[in-house]
Design a protein that fits this description.
heterodimer; A: 209 residues; mainly alpha; 4 helices; 0% strand; elongated; B: 91 residues; alpha+beta; three-stranded antiparallel β-sheet; 3 strands
Chain lengths: 209, 91
């Protein structure tokens, strides 16, 4: 029973740490794609000397992605810092007792309580960012497809197609990670609710009522 | 420790830590409490007879009593059960 609890602890820590690392990668990709999108379209408009609505929209989306990417990376780095501390603490307590596992549970709960708002924002941001990149990627692929149909397969079209596919992939990944964070968040919210019930029992034990 | 803890969690940490007699400074450093909050929590546990105050010529120490073991066990058991439900994914 004790061993099982510790194993679950370890699995969950690994999952959450993996999730935060993936989130960090997605944040970095979002930042990079945002810069690429905004700069490419902006330079294109400057070169052409005219501002078409689609390019202006893309520059706007790129700017939003840059801001969101920066914010995302900073927030996730903060979460990762805490998770890493907990995981390191757990690694040193491999052969610990149920009591030591309870101590680590306290650390994890405290970490979740402190980062609950950020995690909720990550869920929302992941959905928005994911949808944003799905749109950008979709538009890119449609544009590339139209160009290929009209002027044949050329390096430029191929590049646009690959770029669109990458953006679409980032969008799908953003939505998936957002979903994972959401699942994680629900489990921890349930645990926080459970701690409220535990507190009643402990209060009785302490005779504080 | 980073993050927010409930009073019950802090009580548990103090009680587990004080199995060997500890000074007030030891406790607040280990449990990451400020002096005021530390005093409040320790006073509560002393009043409940979960902590025993031991005074000698040089210093005052606090030690967990046998009475506190029920609380420690109940807490450990209930917090252990929090991990019965896991998120439905693995990475």
């Amino acid at each position: 029973m004790e061993f099982e609890t510790r194993e679950k602890f370890k699995t969950e820590l690994r999952s959450f740490f993996g999730l935060t690392v993936l989130n960090l990668i997605i944040g970095a990709l979002m930042l990079a794609l945002g810069i690429s999108l905004a700069v490419t379209r902006l330079l294109g408009m400057v070169d052409a000397g005219q501002f078409d609505p689609l390019s202006v929209l893309m520059v706007g989306l790129g700017a939003v992605a840059i801001g969101a990417g920066f914010y995302w990376i900073i927030q996730i780095a903060e979460i990762m810092d805490g998770v890493d501390d907990i995981r390191t603490a757990y690694d040193t307590l491999e052969n610990g007792s149920q009591e030591q596992a309870a101590g680590l549970t306290i650390k994890m709960l405290a970490h979740y309580r402190s980062n609950k708002t950020i995690i909720s924002r990550m869920v929302v941001l992941g959905r928005i960012g994911g949808a944003l990149f799905l749109i950008v990627g979709g538009l890119g692929m449609i544009g590339a497809g139209a160009s290929i149909l009209s002027s044949g397969l050329m390096t430029e079209n191929l590049g646009q197609l690959v770029g669109g596919m990458v953006a679409f992939g980032v969008g799908v990944a953003g939505l998936l990670i957002s979903r994972y964070f959401s699942i994680y968040s629900k489990v921890w919210d349930a645990r926080l609710e459970e701690t409220a019930r535990i507190e009643n029992a402990l209060e009785q034990q302490l005779g504080a009522k | 420790m980073k993050g927010r803890r409930t009073s019950f969690e802090i009580y548990w940490e103090i009680l587990v830590y004080c199995r060997e007699p500890k000074t007030f400074t030891n406790i607040i450093n280990r449990c990451d409490l400020n002096s005021r909050i530390g005093q409040q929590h320790i006073k509560f546990l002393v009043d409940k007879e979960y902590l025993l105050v031991q005074k000698d010529e040089e210093r005052t120490t606090y030690a967990t009593t046998a009475k506190a073991q029920e609380y420690i066990t109940l807490f450990s058991k209930m917090y252990g059960a929090l991990f019965d439900d896991l998120p439905g994914f693995k990475l």
